[in-house]
């Protein structure tokens, strides 16, 4: 399926699945950084997400259901 991810100043990452907004569902929220999230990127298979933060860390998230 199609997914969208965004990093935020509130130190979180939001992950939307296709159709979530149309159905009124809240996005999945990933927490773990100590400063704002400046970048996100998907793995080629779409099962993992990598995030970089102003806290000088990079995290790998497993987002496959």
Summarize the structure.
The protein is 0% helix and 49% strand. It has 65 residues and is mainly β. 14% of the residues are buried.
Question: What does this 3D model show about the protein?
Answer:
The chain is mostly beta strands. It has no helices and six strands. The protein has strands at residues 3-7, 12-17, 28-31, 37-42, 48-53, 58-62. The strands form two sheets. The protein has a three-stranded antiparallel beta sheet with strand order 1-2-3, with no helix packed on it. A hairpin with a 4-residue loop joins strand 5 (48-53) and strand 6. The radius of gyration is 12 Å and the shape is globular. The N and C termini lie close together (11 Å). The model has no long low-confidence stretch (mean pLDDT 92).
């Amino acid at each position: 399926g199609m997914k969208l991810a965004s990093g935020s100043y509130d130190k979180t990452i939001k992950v939307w699945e296709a159709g979530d907004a149309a159905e009124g569902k809240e996005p999945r929220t990933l927490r773990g950084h100590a400063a704002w999230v400046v970048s996100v990127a998907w793995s080629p298979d779409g099962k993992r997400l990598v995030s970089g933060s102003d806290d000088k860390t990079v995290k790998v998230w497993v987002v496959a259901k």
